[in-house]
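Recap for those who missed Tuesday's class. We walked through two folding examples back to back. For each one, the amino acid string is listed first and its predicted structure tokens come directly after. Nothing is annotated here on purpose, so try labeling regions yourself before you check the end of the notes.
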Amino acid sequence: MIHSVPCVLAIYIVLHIYLLYMCIYILSYCLQAFEKFTTRPMMGRKELLKITLRKAAHEWKLIVDLRLTGNLHF
């Protein structure tokens, strides 16, 4: 069956409108995610240093424990 030109053109326009709508929806979702990321309060140097030292102490303890138990393999 051969479609008329106005029918095909209408389907083409509807599909492009739908595609544009989906692009706008995805873009707005990404912008919301980025906005949440940028509005998060930043930690100060003191907080970051405390977290880093805590992690380093934990890892050092883990290394010492593994060497004492003999489960450390290189």
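Example two. Treat it independently of the first, because the proteins are unrelated.
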Amino acid sequence: MKKRVMISSFLILLIAAVAFGYLQYRENNQYESYLSEVLVNDVAFLSRDIMMADLMLDNVASEETVTAEELAAIKENYLGIHEHGNAVVRLADMWLDSVDNADLSYQNNPFPTYMSYNFVRYIEELEPENASEDSAISLTEEEIENIELMKSVNDIWVKAVTDNLEGTTLPTSDAAREELQNEPRSIRMRLVTDKYWDTYVGSMVNDEDWVDMVEQMQRETEDYETEVENIF
């Protein structure tokens, strides 16, 4: 009788352990699915904002003029970079704390989010008072140089995106310039293609591509930190 009781107790404990393990496994899968869903959208928004800002800065630097409408659009892109960049960096912190990340060179720091907000403040300084949206404003030599510095930093971010994320593409400036003026929403949606969603939906959190993107942005932007702080 005592032996039967011991066997029954063991079986009950075994069943309980298996059930608990299954619940933990299911909970972890649900958590990973949730993080992947949030992450895949934030990274897509971040990528689009970075690439749209790049196209618009290139156009402004080439024309050496800017309209109030263009300034508003550039500002909106950098606010998006700040918002979605913060979200992606926070998710990287959370996720990498829960996995073995000893071999990753990712560092917890505010790149690129703090620089994007510096750029927002500068764009606000350029915004004219009482000007129509489509009236062109001539830029000074110093302002053009500052725009070109913003573009140089943004080029690094574009490269980090397109180097590491499947299904992200930036059209050449010449091909995109006219469309940018006439159909900005159309070109924005094409910057992140179906290949991106097919690759990452449901599984992005377990893919290192997005972590590599953040790490590259952080590492290659550091050289500009002092200059950005001094100018903006």
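Answers for example two:
Residues 10 and 16 are 10 Å apart (CA to CA).
Residues 36-231 form one domain.
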